[in-house]
UniProtKB/TrEMBL annotation:
One of its GO terms (biological process) is folic acid biosynthetic process. Belongs to the class-IV pyridoxal-phosphate-dependent aminotransferase family. Pathway: Cofactor biosynthesis; tetrahydrofolate biosynthesis; 4-aminobenzoate from chorismate: step 2/2. This is Aminodeoxychorismate lyase. NCBIfam families: pabC_Proteo, PRK06092.1. InterPro entries: Aminodeoxychorismate_lyase_IV, Aminotrans_IV, Aminotrans_IV_CS, Aminotransferase-like, BCAT-like_C, BCAT-like_N, Class-IV_PLP-Dep_Aminotrnsfr. GO terms for cellular component: cytosol. Involved in the biosynthesis of p-aminobenzoate (PABA), a precursor of tetrahydrofolate. Converts 4-amino-4-deoxychorismate into 4-aminobenzoate (PABA) and pyruvate. The keyword Lyase applies.
Length: 282
């Protein structure tokens, strides 16, 4: 494949530091979702928000007790991106526990597997970051999980939620917990605006602690904003002055509608969007 041509069906990929497109059928990531992943925007050939991605990957590996060499991973990512000779795209990094026999017992799996693949940036009609998007309220509910917050490979709820709608009327879906509390989007985190305060759902029971969400939480004070986390409902969503979703590939998308609810693209959302976009475009 030419390195100047990419598609999502046939990405350029490495497995454990070598060009490859196949993994063993007994890989535990395939068999049990036993692993983690990061989806990283690449700009000017460099991974953006990389320190936060690495921090989350290290934290997740420690929780799952998967051996992880951070410095070796960083070197490998640098070599992989340099080999692509493409200025922008999406790097997907997967770390599994490696190969093992049938059964849940992970004993003996001493060689984690690293999978790197490079994809084109997603293309959307119009300019969702400027004009905003509609949210689909998903019927699929997110259950409470012992490993909430981690970006582990068990993402079946997100898959089923995303299958609920097709077409471009809605670019993202809203996921609720079993008790109808707000959790997140299918591929993003949710923020509501109240004055100069950003309200975002607590992810202690379900959801993914997104890298873009983390960046916003770390820098909001410098933008004249504060962040509060908590349990919020659809009533809280209806009462929000502004709403937006975020992830580390697309940045900030203002939300202008969800069902019968409507919002404008407000000044606070624009401030956060522009500050995040500065980093993603750096």
């Amino acid at each position: 494949m030419s390195r100047n041509v990419l598609d999502n069906c046939n990405p350029v990929s490495w497995v454990n530091g070598e060009p490859a497109s196949l993994v063993s059928i007994n890989d535990r990531g395939l068999a049990y979702g036993d692993g983690l992943f990061e989806t990283i925007r690449v700009q000017a050939g460099m991974p953006t928000l990389f320190d936060l991605h690495c921090k989350r990957l290290c934290s997740g590996a420690a929780v799952l007790r998967i051996p992880f060499d951070l410095e070796g991973f960083k070197r490998e990512v640098g070599e992989f991106l340099q080999a692509q000779k493409l200025p922008e795209g999406v790097l997907k990094a997967i770390v599994t526990r490696g190969s093992g026999g049938r059964g849940y017992n992970p004993v003996g799996c001493e060689n984690p597997r690293r999978i790197l693949s490079f994809h084109p940036l997603p293309a959307y009609k119009g300019s969702p970051g400027l004009s905003g998007i509609r949210l689909h309220e998903c019927k699929t509910r997110m259950g409470d999980h012992a490993f909430a917050g981690l970006k582990h490979l068990n993402r079946l709820e997100n898959v089923m939620a995303r299958s609920e709608w097709q077409g471009s009327d809605c670019l993202e879906g809203l996921l609720l917990g079993l008790d109808d509390r707000l959790v997140e989007g299918t591929m993003s985190n949710l923020f509501m605006v109240s004055g100069s305060t950003l309200l975002t759902p607590d992810l202690g029971r379900a959801g993914v602690n997104g890298v873009c969400r983390e960046f916003i939480q770390e820098h909001a004070q410098g933008w004249g904003l504060k962040v509060e986390t908590g349990d919020y409902s659809l009533e809280d969503l209806a009462g929000a002055e502004e709403v937006f979703v975020c992830n580390s590939v697309n940045g900030i998308w203002p939300v202008i509608a969800c069902g019968d609810l409507n919002w404008s693209v407000g000044s606070v959302t624009c401030t956060v969007r522009d500050r995040v976009q500065e980093v993603l475009n750096a």
